[in-house]
Amino acid sequence: MNTPVTNSLNSLIPTQNLIKVWEIPGGIHPPENKTQSMQLPLGSLPIPPQLIIPLNQHIGAPAKPIVQVGDKVLAGQLIAAADGTFSANVHASSSGTVSAIENFVLPHPSGMSGECIVIDTDGEHTFIATEACEDYLAVERLTLLDKIRAAGVAGLGGAGFPTSVKLNTKSTQKIDTLVINGAECEPYITADDMLMQVRADEVIAGTLLLSYILHHPTRLVIGVEDNKPKAIAALQAAVKNARVTGKDSAIEVVAVPTKYPSGGAKQLIQILTGREIPHGHHSADIGATCVNVGTAVAGWRAVRYGEPLIDRVMTVVGESLRTQRNIDVLFGTPINYVLEQHGFDANKASRVIMGGSMMGFTLPDLRAPVIKTTNCLLAPSKKEAPPPPPAQACIRCGLCAEACPVSLLPQQLFWYAQAEDLERLQAHNIFDCIECGACSYVCPSKIPLVQYYRAAKGSIRNHISEKEKADRSRQRFEFRKLRIEKEEAEKEAKRVARKKVAEEAKALLLQKTAEQKAAAANQPQGAADTNSVLAVPQVAAVMTALAKANADQLGFDEQKARLERILGAAKNSLESARAPLVPKNLEFPITEEQLVRQQSRIKQCELKLAEAEKKLADFLATSAPAAEDPVAAAIARAQAKLSLSPEEKLRANIESLQARLIKSQEKAEQAKAENSPTANALQLGAEKMLQKLAEAQAELAELEKSTPVTPARVEVSAAEHAIEKAKAKAAALATMSDDEKRAEQIQSLQTRLQKAKDRLAKAEAEGDANVEAFRTAMLNLEEKLNALL
Amino acid sequence: MFELILQNPITSALVALVGLSLLFGAVLGFAAVRYRVEGNPIVDQIDTILPQTQCGQCGYPGCRPYAQAIVDGDAINKCPPGGQSTINALADLLDVEAPQLDEEHGTESEVKKVAYIREDECIGCTKCIQACPMDAILGAAKQMHTVIADECTGCDLCVEPCPVDCIDMIPVETNLKTWAWELPSINPIHLIASDKHQRTGAAA
Fold this sequence. Notes:
The complex is a heterodimer of chains A (789) and B (204). Chain A is built from 22 helices and 17 strands.
């Protein structure tokens, strides 16, 4: 594709050498419409009464405001600082007072709002003191980059990429070609043309500055489409007058054949160097950097005069305007103010477009301000830009594929975009599409192809971000599950450890009592085991602690059994203490001392026994009535019932029925024997009971059949519980009509309200600290309910 | 040797075939052991398609259990947060017809929502924190809680447990970063004038 063609303009510009240019595939030749706005010289506007300066006029993060409402600002004063590397400073475009920092409608196809600083201008345009730099060659490159960064310079060609980031290339990338983009291929727009004619010297100076910053690339090329002979001539004149240092390469001003979209950065690099930027790479990867002429001038002014970027050259064009020209406009000037100043006739206009007729977008709201990337305001009449005709079916003519400057298959992309087949779209490299609109332009069926691609790109991006979020969600969910499992395991381990300790203590205690007994038996030897005596208090401590820990958990029976055990033990030890002392060794008769000891021991044991007896009695006295309390018993029974599985419930039911049946049968027999008049009734009752019993048994049999394995009782966690509820709700909602849904909502609100009221009452009664919160919650619910009713 | 084969064609054919089948069987058996895939890869694939809200509207406690259930033969149309696109993707993966979303499990909402805690009303009970499957709620007992909006999947599970009813589900607004162009509305297009007549004729 990249066949070299000789420059067609050699005859027109005799001073130019024969410079080889390459050709890009595809491209179109739409009506240029560039003469309208070039009739008048570069104009300017009176300072508008109010400037609305958005914080995000560039690609990247919005700047952060550093002024406050009410502050006086001067023209060129920094009002919002770049937030991170991928951001740009924002300056006051004129002097005045900051009247608001708020969301304001932006010049964006969505018509959305973004944060803006509003300045009420004083009309004096007092400039802040700036720091000039006579000789940039004496300054470090990084300092120059800082100056450009401080001036808030962003790509003025249309994308708004922060220029200091673009010029700060990686150390591994050697830039050998600097391309200054003055192609301006888009119809209607002449801002760069005007700039090159009026400020050709500054364009050249900017080019040399960038050349210095980029370590003197071997080629400095200014690419201008050959439909701008005046600009080319002006630039060539300026090149001759330029102050070129020895290290700089000669600046080539190259006229490239007029063809849309040769002004795209990648396209122009391809035209001028023959190198195509591979998929997924930047121009710096192939050793080239492309900077717009306006950006070069802004960079130059930022370094030379310390002037921040507060204005730009913009084309105001279209048949619905009385005056069509290029103007030097301050950023933040409301678009409707600009249009007003040019005699805009709203009735005549079909719409107002920011950018050119190919890549621009219709402004949804004309109050939006002019920003760094606003290179053109196009206000065509209805005749000039009629509403697009309805799209017809694709006839597979293939013209779009021929027009595509990046050699994509627009037709395939169109099908896949319609089918929302995101994978195939990516496989067909939709992200290489530069959205130039050449395919839509040539389409005989007037299909708005670029619209499809833009939408498809958006949905792919959303899809990718959703995918990322889903992956993150999965990780978080799995991590949470792991964490909960770990917590459970730790709890379980603690439980096991506690149990082990308790068992050990018990074993120790048993051992000690055995030893004690042995010691008691060995008393005649006179040497009571000191160890055991010492150990006794410890064991007792462990024992009491254990008893305390267990007391709450043990049931009534267990406690009773325990107390009885203690009592038994006390009795045993008393008996053993009372046993007569038998001298083990006949040589050592029982001494007085030993006898006294035994006496005291017996007394101790007696005391212990009494204590144990008392404890048991106390326990029985306190707990027995509770157990006998019919209400408590009923509760206990109910609880027991609740905890039973259906099968167990049935069984219990059957048992009780059987018991009742036997009783009633007995009664009936008795009555019969006594010839009581109630005998018949009793007999009937007994029969009924029999019937019930049979039913219950049948049910049980069925249940056993249907559930061969009793379902394990699963602990229902809070989340699962909520899931169940949500499920039920969703199921119910699906089958309901709107009215029913509403009724359902009202009902649920009412129950929630009731709950909240109960909670509030309880909290009030208990003097809870959260009474206020509960009260507001109740009021909120009431409000919601009222709103529904 | 050659003669022997010629003389016993059936036997030699049998020997050759049995030999070959033994050889290939051995190779396949080795491959089955050597390149065994742990777990069921289909479950993972389904799991990546599911939206990971872990909301439980499908009736399973999370997306992965539902993925497992799909592999075990459950219907693929039980995921309202994923909506029709997820069903289509699943149908594509499993090579089945894409059914409509089962309304029994809820309806697909057009707008994404996230939970929002009205912080001055929060009493710090931690109930929502326990209910959140995503750990997307931050807070401690008796301290104000807040939702990490970026991590919230809008599953709704925290609304019910809140005792003071201070959690709202608010729709996520598109901002300049998430905004995207919309597909042009497709008008019924007719290739040629006679197309229209044919189509209406066929419909009548």
